[in-house]
Design brief:
2 copies of one chain form a homodimer.
Chain A: H1 7-19, H2 23-31, H3 35-44, H4 47-56, H5 59-66, H6 71-92, H7 95-103, H8 107-116, H9 119-129, H10 136-139, E1 146-148, H11 153-163, E2 172-176, E3 182-187, H12 188-193, H13 200-203, E4 211-212, H14 217-227, E5 231-236, E6 240-246, H15 247-265, H16 278-305, H17 307-312, H18 315-344, H19 349-382, H20 385-415, H21 425-451
Parallel strand pairs in A: 1-2, 4-5
Antiparallel strand pairs in A: 2-3, 5-6
Helix pairs in contact in A: 1-2, 1-4, 3-5, 5-6, 7-9, 14-15, 16-21, 18-20, 18-21, 19-20, 20-21
Subunit structure (chains A, B): Homodimer.
Pfam families (chains A, B): CBS, MgtE, MgtE_N
Main location (chains A, B): membrane
């Protein structure tokens, strides 16, 4: 908030200092900026000033700014910095940021960058990139403080001081044994409140909540938000401490996962944002649309099958879009409730049955209300009591079917470990179209004698 | 992860210790549990053991567990604890958790609870409840450490130690002047690395990123995730420090906001989760459905208007659901892209125009592809070239309209500070139904002579 008003004049000051070559003045401005603000400034800067801007930043600042830039700018910066300076920056960057940066690059580019880096750093990054995407192994970083269980509080505090610069957050110290196995955790508070000569193994908290390198990032997010942790340790095999995942990365995960749910629910295709090019966006959206188009034709052939019924009572066509639409809408509603419910809750069979019966009831209540309303409208509008009955009863049945379809389909997918959100709103809608037309014309043909 | 396997046997151990009245053994188990796990255990516990469970917990543990319980259980616990013990717990609870707990209660219940609490605590809570919901004022807590700018590093460290127990996170100390105005921030790292006799005002970071008590929680979440903060200070009026918002609360906000977007996008009505009762859920979903039902009838009357056209060429009806459906689907896709895009990005007019043109292009590309496909299908299926042209050209036009409607409607709402997500998928779908039918039958009537 407070940062934003002065943003524009800041840009002016920066350009000023760059033009006049006042490195000192430039540094004074930077000292007061958050990494995100630096990145904003860099991105707003006219191209001609960018090189000098980078030249004036020190390595630490460059590293901080890097992780706030989007991928394109990150690569631009690396390339402008030249191989020597850029590897210094990469060495400093957190491994998780580095992994994300590299993950989309060509193998040879990755090779080139890593080859220049400190052996230990590049090993860690290469190791992390072997874990599947969206797992804990990809999110973890090694900027944390570990201590041996044999330490005293004093030794722990000293080590904490030495590593303060490097560690991302100081809230917890993770305790390991001789084989680097995670055996406990000590909060910084415990150190403050403990006696200097206390042994760590006596004051440490041994029931450590941890995740495995292969744990899905959505699961990790669930745990961090449940336990209100700042960071959570990541282990591999039998409790070997590999790294930590920090809450700032988890926030990004939560946003990303929510976006993915919405992308799928709306069948809008993966990763389309404001900057996606038209052809790319269209290309990503088309597969779904073509599938839906073909399914949509099924409804067509159903109507084709009932064309005599329709011919003899064209009024039936008036209510077709409404019935189909309503069935789709109620299905979408149920779907959304299920998909989002699964984000914060794990389901056992008991809850599943409870949920299905709940939705059945919802379908019945909604169905009765809407059916009652529409049959009166149909009667008044078309003056045919029979039509009212046909439309009303059809709507009642289709709404119940629609609600259940919207509930059961995602639950079945979930059961088979398929992301329930792939049962997108449009898909449910299109499937429900078919149900509704079958029911509608089925009922209509029964009463056809009275309708025509 | 590691915590979960033993959960069941834990429950058994707990019941054991409760039955045998082994308070010591019970405490040993609790000492190792996270608040969330305690809450889980309490909820899984057979009703008959719950009273003793609460009796055996000390105030601190009760307070920790409380904030992890859902509202119903929280009230059950308070009531079981009795007014004296429960007020002790409330006094300890973080104000933000307290505010959330109270916000849904009846005024007299709130009155009763607050009246028993420490004056200072209850004042703070009452003050917070005056801020509008979903603002920073409702989220902030007062469990933070503030220091005067005149302190030395040593004085700051001492104060930090005294308050370690109370403060939620120790990462930052907020610096205030004589009038309690926020003038700077010092990270705990700075203290570790500074000299003991350094003056705080010399080492503090003066360009503090802060939010106002009235800032929308979504905005707060945006800032915390941008700056990777653990907490952000909340000010009122001219920089008076009121409290801090911590990252753990922000994760809940991010999840909540995402759910709200999906609820609206799917018109599934506010706050329906797995535990909502059928009638409540139905009641919350009905308003939208009835509105959509009425709009749906408009499509009906359009068809009514074109009934002669339809009568003379029933084949037109076959493609009706597909065309209407496709227009709705593409609209939903565009809508989702816009709504989620706005979560992470602020838009200026330049980007808006860029976005609209992008979607226009997407519409054209998608339209041409689908139109080409469908006209061939229509021709083969119905053997009428004219029908192919009619269906194809209609689909082309409606898909372009649908895409633009799905883009422009939410943007207009956003411009007028209405949450763009209220333009729900179902609404866009239903509106697009109407467009598509007008276009479809409009074009059809031009060619009617050739169709029938």
């Amino acid at each position: 908030m407070a940062a934003s008003p002065s943003e524009y004049e800041l840009t002016l000051q920066i350009i000023q200092s760059l033009k006049e070559g006042k490195k000192r003045g430039f540094q004074e401005i930077m000292d007061e900026l958050q990494p995100y603000d630096m990145a904003q400034q860099y991105q707003h800067l006219p191209a001609k000033h960018r090189n000098k801007f980078l030249l004036y930043l020190n390595i630490a600042q460059l590293k901080e700014m890097m992780k706030e830039l989007n991928k394109e700018d990150q690569l631009e910066v690396l390339q402008k910095l030249g191989i020597e300076k850029s590897t210094k920056v990469l060495d400093l960057m957190e491994n998780d940021d580095l992994t994300t940066l590299l993950s989309d690059l060509e193998p040879e580019q990755i090779e080139e960058l890593l080859s220049e880096m400190k052996q230990e750093e590049s090993d860690m990054v290469q190791h992390m990139m072997n874990y599947p995407p969206e797992t804990a192994g990809r999110l973890m970083n090694n900027r944390f403080v570990w201590i041996s269980k044999h330490y005293t509080v004093r030794e722990a505090v000293d080590k904490l001081k030495d590593f303060a610069e490097l560690a991302e957050y100081l809230n917890y110290l993770y305790v390991i044994d001789e084989e680097k196995k995670l055996v406990g955790v000590v909060s910084y508070k415990d150190l403050l409140l403990g006696e200097m000569q206390d042994k760590i193994e006596d004051i440490m908290f041994t029931r450590v909540v941890k995740v495995d390198v292969h744990t899905d990032q959505e699961e990790v997010a669930k745990m961090i938000s449940r336990y209100d942790f700042i960071s959570i340790p990541v282990i591999e095999g039998d409790d070997k401490l590999m790294g930590v995942i920090t809450v700032d990365d988890i926030i990004d995960v939560v946003i990303q996962e929510a976006n993915e749910d919405i992308e799928k629910l709306s069948a809008s295709g993966k990763a389309i944002d404001f900057n996606t090019k038209p052809f790319v966006a269209a290309y990503r959206r088309l597969p779904w649309l073509i599938l839906l188009l073909l399914i949509g034709l099924v409804s067509g052939s159903i109507i084709d099958g009932f064309s005599d019924t329709l011919q003899s009572a064209v009024a039936l066509a008036f209510f077709m879009p409404m019935i189909a639409g309503m069935t789709g809408n109620t299905g979408t509603q149920s779907l959304a409730v299920v998909v989002r419910g699964l984000v914060s809750q794990d389901l056992d069979i008991k809850q599943v049955m409870k949920l299905i019966f709940r939705e059945l009831w919802v379908g019945i209540i909604i169905g009765l209300s809407c059916a009652f309303l529409i049959s009166i409208i149909a009667f008044i509008w078309q003056g045919s009591f029979t039509l009212g009955v046909v439309v009303g009863s059809s709507l009642l049945i289709t709404l119940i079917i629609g609600t259940l379809a919207g509930t059961i389909i995602p639950l079945v997918l979930y059961k088979f470990n398929i992301d329930p959100a792939v049962a997108s709103g449009p898909l449910i809608t299109t499937i429900n179209d078919i149900f509704s037309l079958l029911v509608y014309f089925g009922i209509a043909s029964i009463f056809i004698s009275k309708l025509s």
